[in-house]
Design a protein that fits this description.
Length: 220
DNA sequence: AGCCAGGCTACCG
DNA sequence: CGGTAGCATGGC
């Protein structure tokens, strides 16, 4: 199983993804100078929490709501009334849970005082599981921690067969990390490409939904 | 008009 | 402990 070749195939098909999509930049040509500061790292982490089982478009609305009220800063989040935050979060769904998750994370974020968190510290927070922790490490802190999601697992099952690949998060993560150079830029784009591919395939049936572009491209 | 989205926790047997 | 219901909204 050549995971570097798989990366090349995905890249050939979908091109550079330019993750993470910050409000300021959106998806962009590859520019690994972002995040440029702690404020942008914080925005990425909130986005990672908000997008749990939620479409990114709905998350963007929440981030814009917060930004427009000048609340997209850790100190402001903690000072804001619950009702205001719930209304801002509403478009992302699960607004009761996500309010709690965001407050817990924000308190932790401030306690770091610009230090990079350890993976276990993130996992110990209520509301942060392995995928969210790895997304925060990889995109907010540029740590080469490979992100596994439902798309990743499904793609490997499709390509190699369910009996050939590990099924749990930890082993899947390890599969990528032991077969790739520990390069955060590679990991960032790889995960983004898997998501780009995954969005074109129905999650339950594995059947492709109608591609929006490039029907003639070879499928991956 | 359903189905689904870049999960996680709590609870069930 | 492995499996899964519940959490909520908006786009297609």
């Amino acid at each position: 199983m050549n995971l570097l070749k798989l990366y090349d195939d995905l890249y050939q098909k979908y091109g550079p993804q330019g993750w993470w999509p910050l409000l300021e930049t959106g998806y962009q040509k590859l520019d690994f100078s972002y995040p440029k500061n702690q404020t942008q790292s914080f925005e990425i982490a909130l986005g990672a929490i908000l997008t749990q089982n939620t479409a990114w478009l709905n998350v963007e609305k929440t981030l814009n709501n917060l930004k427009n009220q000048e609340l997209l800063l850790p100190e402001k989040i903690l000072a804001a009334p619950d009702k205001v935050l719930q209304n801002a979060i509403r478009s992302s769904g699960y607004y009761n849970q996500k309010l709690k998750k965001i407050k817990i994370f924000t308190t932790f974020f401030l306690s770091l005082k610009n230090r990079t968190p350890a993976r276990n510290e993130l996992l110990n927070l209520w509301g942060i599981g392995p995928e969210t922790a790895d997304s925060i490490l990889l995109y907010a802190y540029k740590i080469p921690s490979f992100v596994i999601d439902a798309y990743t697992k499904r793609l490997l099952i499709n390509l190699y067969g369910a009996d050939k690949i590990p099924q749990n998060y930890h082993d899947l993560k390890n599969l990528f990390e032991t077969n790739l150079p520990a390069d955060y830029e590679l990991f960032q784009e790889y995960h983004a490409l898997i998501v780009a591919n995954g969005k074109l395939v129905n999650l339950k049936t594995y059947k492709p939904v109608l591609p929006k572009v490039n029907r003639s491209d070879q499928s991956v």
